[in-house]
Amino acid sequence: MSRAAVLFTILASLLTTVIATTIVINVGEDNKNQFVPNAVNATKGDVIAFHFVGGHHDVVQSDSFGSCNQITNGCPNPEWYNYTVDLPKGQIWFFCSTLTHCKYYNMTGTIFVLDSLNQTNNAATPLVYTGFNILISSIVAAFLMI
Ligand SMILES: [Cu+2]
């Protein structure tokens, strides 16, 4: 592979790293039937990392805000469940289908998918950048340009 191709590959991966973020939602925090936070902003390609921290729960997609109507299969109480946002814009609703967690405890949540070119409210969300990858890519790119 030529140096230019290597550099292009590194820069492309760097760009992807900067744009894609991981957003953590705790499931069952404080041993309560809740998602924390229960609303997040994201853009297409971001990873929503559901971290099951207490109790027995799952995550399934629903058909509308606050709804307990299941439209996808869920994930049965893993330690982590990663969901990659594949919607360009709009809302994705989810809930816990275990027992009465949705109906009586309103264990629901919403992913607000923002147009990646028109983000207005991301400062309020717990975005986690993979800074280590950015650092390594930058060092390698700088080395190749010497
Ligand atoms: Cu639950």
UniProtKB/TrEMBL annotation:
What Gene3D superfamilies does UniProt report for this protein, alphabetically?
Answer: Cupredoxins - blue copper proteins
Q: Which residues cross the membrane?
A: 127-145
Record's signal peptide: 1-20
Pfam families recorded for this chain?
Cu_bind_like
- The answer to whether UniProt assigns keyword Signal to this entry is yes
Q: Which residues form a coiled coil?
A: none
Name the InterPro entries for this protein: Cupredoxin, Phytocyanin_dom, Ser-rich/MCO-related
Keyword annotations = Membrane, Signal, Transmembrane, Transmembrane helix
Where on the tree of life does the source sit, at the highest rank?
Answer: Eukaryota
Q: Which residues form the Phytocyanin domain?
A: 44-103
Q: Does the keyword Zinc apply?
A: no
Extract the GO molecular function terms from the UniProt entry.
electron transfer activity
Q: From the Swiss-Prot or TrEMBL record, give the protein name.
A: 16948_t:CDS:1
